[in-house]
Amino acid sequence: MSRRVAITGMGCVTPIGTDKSEMWRNALNGVTGIRRLSDELTAQLPVKLAATIDEFDPLRTMEAKETRKTDRFMQLAIAAADEAVRDSGLVLGDNVDPQRTGVWIGSGVGGIATFEAGMTGAVKNGYDRVSPFALPMFLPNMAASRVAIRFGAKGITACTTTACASGSQSIGEAFRAIRRGEADAMIAGGAEAPICRIGLASFAAMRALSLQTDPSQGSRPFDRRRDGFVMGEGAGMLVLEAWEHAKARRAPIYAELLGYGACGEGYHIAAPRPDGSDWARAMNLALEDAALSRGSIGYINAHGTSTPLNDATETLAIKSAFGSRAYDVSISSTKSMTGHLLGASGAVEAVLTALALRDGIIPPTVNYQERDGDLDLDYTPNMAKPKRLVAAMSNTFAFGGHNAVLVFGR
């Protein structure tokens, strides 16, 4: 079987909005979610910025006793899933079979803050004082488990942990499950809450993070003065549904998920292959899977992390995959506003890409001021622009050489 797949619901909790409508409005207005961290948190660190969600209240979707048993990344996942399922109109056991409804939610580092707190407590108070909830609070798969329990989903329930590609690959694999006829609906996406000392220190030690202290200068993808990414937290969820199932219940459809390309590099744990050939291959695989020509793609939501190597390599890869057409494609990195949400980034960017298709508006790359040599494509600098779109692409390229590309149709 090879069934068409519709997006019938979407939900987000991000540094630029705690629901998809607020996020989309702020993205189009170039609002940044990057903030200066407290001196207490960063006292021993060179990093001073992160994209945080200050307005999030888990008690809006969970009981107090449950919040004490869940890490923040799970709370973000549940809130985003709640919005997406409500948005879709799906009611498990009523208009969709629970046994044919699955959950696939990725996370790069899972409950890293809980793990840090648990280790600190164990060293101080003894290992016999470790909480029985510690393990189920930091395991990356527990966001998918919690969401499945919440809605009573009994289909395939899984977690993809492939660093920054986790969200995109979770959506891609959920897409394939529906295509193959193994499910009628899937709740799919990614969640991450890595803002803690060990999370910041680990990426800082790899020299991956921006050392800027001004939030307006921290994330500047494709700009000559970019110096690293700004870590963020958040969650993004899609409800994917077999096209015929969605049409039969007259569900609203945001966009169609047309293709998914994934490949590995077998090259380096942190650096991409310099010529971008594997990133280009992932884009070509997604286009082939979608049965689309390169001329159909009007917008690419770039991985665009704001690191010197990533942005140069992605530009090379886009030129390789699209040839002369690369100069006609509108490109933007919404990480310039949301920060880099690690395992949630691809899922949040999938939501933004679907909304760009629906509304015919390209969100901007903010903080772009100076061209960097051969980085000469249309990065949609600083202001959103209208553009009628037929199809769009979302790129995600992760540490370890995990590459995932999604293609969406209007």
Automatic annotation (TrEMBL):
<keyword id="KW-0808">Transferase</keyword>
<dbReference type="GO" id="GO:0004315">
    <property type="term" value="F:3-oxoacyl-[acyl-carrier-protein] synthase activity"/>
</dbReference>
<dbReference type="InterPro" id="IPR000794">
    <property type="entry name" value="Beta-ketoacyl_synthase"/>
</dbReference>
<keyword id="KW-0276">Fatty acid metabolism</keyword>
<dbReference type="Pfam" id="PF02801">
    <property type="entry name" value="Ketoacyl-synt_C"/>
</dbReference>
<dbReference type="InterPro" id="IPR014030">
    <property type="entry name" value="Ketoacyl_synth_N"/>
</dbReference>
<comment type="pathway">
    <text>Lipid metabolism; fatty acid biosynthesis.</text>
</comment>
<dbReference type="GO" id="GO:0030497">
    <property type="term" value="P:fatty acid elongation"/>
</dbReference>
<dbReference type="InterPro" id="IPR017568">
    <property type="entry name" value="3-oxoacyl-ACP_synth-2"/>
</dbReference>
<comment type="similarity">
    <text>Belongs to the thiolase-like superfamily. Beta-ketoacyl-ACP synthases family.</text>
</comment>
<feature type="domain" description="Ketosynthase family 3 (KS3)">
    <location>
        <begin position="2"/>
        <end position="410"/>
    </location>
</feature>
<dbReference type="InterPro" id="IPR016039">
    <property type="entry name" value="Thiolase-like"/>
</dbReference>
<dbReference type="Pfam" id="PF00109">
    <property type="entry name" value="ketoacyl-synt"/>
</dbReference>
<keyword id="KW-0275">Fatty acid biosynthesis</keyword>
<dbReference type="GO" id="GO:0005829">
    <property type="term" value="C:cytosol"/>
</dbReference>
<protein>
    <recommendedName>
        <fullName>3-oxoacyl-[acyl-carrier-protein] synthase 2</fullName>
        <ecNumber>2.3.1.179</ecNumber>
    </recommendedName>
</protein>
<feature type="active site" description="For beta-ketoacyl synthase activity">
    <location>
        <position position="164"/>
    </location>
</feature>
<dbReference type="InterPro" id="IPR020841">
    <property type="entry name" value="PKS_Beta-ketoAc_synthase_dom"/>
</dbReference>
<dbReference type="InterPro" id="IPR018201">
    <property type="entry name" value="Ketoacyl_synth_AS"/>
</dbReference>
<comment type="function">
    <text>Involved in the type II fatty acid elongation cycle. Catalyzes the elongation of a wide range of acyl-ACP by the addition of two carbons from malonyl-ACP to an acyl acceptor. Can efficiently catalyze the conversion of palmitoleoyl-ACP (cis-hexadec-9-enoyl-ACP) to cis-vaccenoyl-ACP (cis-octadec-11-enoyl-ACP), an essential step in the thermal regulation of fatty acid composition.</text>
</comment>
<keyword id="KW-0012">Acyltransferase</keyword>
<dbReference type="InterPro" id="IPR014031">
    <property type="entry name" value="Ketoacyl_synth_C"/>
</dbReference>
<keyword id="KW-0444">Lipid biosynthesis</keyword>
<keyword id="KW-0443">Lipid metabolism</keyword>
